[in-house]
Amino acid sequence: MTVTGAAAESDELPADVAALIGEVQYEIEGEFPVERGYVWTTCSSVENGNPLFWDDAVAEEITGGPIAPPTMLSVWFRPHHWAPGRTEQALPLQVHFDLKARFDLPEAVMTDNTIVFHEPVRPGDRLHTHQILRSVSEPKTTKLGTGRFWVIDVEYFNQRDQLVGVESYTGFGYRRAEGEA
Amino acid sequence: MTTSLLATDVHEGDALPPLSYDVSATTIVLGALAARDWRPMHHDHDFAVNRNGTQDIFMNTPNQAAWFERYLTDWSGPKGRLGRMRFRMRGSVFPGDTMVLQGTVRSVTQDDSGCAWATVDVDLTVDGDVKTSCHATIALPSSPDDNPWARTGPTWTP
After folding, report:
1. With CB atoms 3.0 to 4.6 Å apart as the test, which of A63, B104, B108, B155 could cross-link to B113 if both were Cys?
2. pLDDT digits (tens, 9 = 90+) for B102-123
3. Contact of A169 with A154, CB cutoff 8 Å
4. What topology is assigned to B7-155 in CATH?
5. Rounded to a whole number, what is the distance in Å from the CA of B45 to chain A's nearest CA?
6. Which of B70, B87, B122, B131 to mutate to test the interface with A (most CBs of A within 10 A)?
């Protein structure tokens, strides 16, 4: 269901959205195991020469074997752009896109991102995750347009159910001002 | 880069060496694809300009996180272990920009488990304007024999 017109701009949070705050949603297992190809591609993209990711002897000495860069947490859950039998493109951070649709806000940006790193992520790990909506603001107007801010936590676990990290995203879904399209 | 900084080497107010990098369209697209971020504003100029209203394609959040991680561990060495990062995006990074990362140590502390932490603020700027600010905590060895990566469970509380 999409809210449009005056309802979309009401200060009051719709009851169905308020009911989602604090609820665990979208328990998902990654589509593929953690693998070193993406580790190297990511390190290459930022010219990261940390030997933990390139030198197995150093990794063995310091981290007990190869690990993935901690900041790659979200990478392991970004769905394939296409997969057999899939009729719609799967979206990461689905709660964010649900809120965009719910409030009929065609554009969105992420403004704040906090990541807390727990157990190291290693090649071969099968990670699973869930999302929790923490808050939704009243309507706000910024230089981008008018919309709402929301905070979503994403918690990540490995196949032994050890917490490997938590990401908190602040998103701003918005509609551009008339005449700026 | 197999040597690592010790917490005893670090002091409040220390400036990290700056990192300057000329951003190209390849930087943006490579970073987005490395992060498996297929959204068009990170590779499609026409979409970015005419749909998103931005001046060009722009660097995505996970790739900025990777830049901050690289910057911090270039400084700490491989025993440096990130505990927490918070960033605030104030503006976008576009092809043609020269981005500069510059960090300052805000504190050096030790928690109840004996883990030594450096808190570092890093600004990513373009032409002096802060595009993204990052507040990070990174565990550093407290002695040559210490290894933050050996910490787990109650001895790792980021």
Report:
1. B155
2. 999 999 999 999 999 999 999 9
3. yes
4. Thiol Ester Dehydrase; Chain A (3.10.129)
5. 16
6. B70
Structure tokens, A128? 């699973």
Residue B7: strand, helix, or coil = helix
C-alpha to C-alpha distance for A74 and B32, rounded to whole angstroms:
12
Find the DSSP H helices in chain B: 25-34, 45-50, 61-76
Which of A62, A109, A112 is facing B78, going by the closest CB pair? A62
Domains in chain B: boundaries: 7-155
Would you call A142 an interface residue with chain B, using a CB distance cutoff of 8 Å? no
pLDDT digits (tens, 9 = 90+) for A26-65: 998 999 999 999 999 999 999 999 999 999 999 999 999 9
Please give the full DSSP string across B10-50, using - where no structure is assigned. Answer: --TTPBPPPEEEE--HHHHHHHHHHTT---GGGT-HHHHHH
ipTM: 0.95
Handedness of CA A110, A68, B81, B149 (dihedral sign): positive
Q: Would an 8 Å CB–CB cutoff place A117 in contact with chain B? A: yes
pLDDT at B64 over 90: yes
Pairing of strands A107-117, A163-175: antiparallel
Question: Distance between CA atoms of B63 and A71, rounded to whole angstroms?
Answer: 9
Nearest chain A residue to B34 by CA distance is: A42
Q: What is the mean pLDDT of each run of 10 residues along chain A (181 residues)?
A: 49 92 94 95 98 97 97 91 82 88 92 94 96 96 94 96 95 82 47
Alpha-carbon span A151 to A170, nearest angstrom: 4
Tell the CATH topology of A5-175: Thiol Ester Dehydrase; Chain A (3.10.129)
The pLDDT of residue A9: 58
Among A20, A62, A67, A61, residue whose Cα is nearest residue A40? A67
User: Is A42 within 8 Å of chain B by CB?
Assistant: yes
Distance in angstroms (rounded) separating the CA atoms of residues A173 and A51: 40
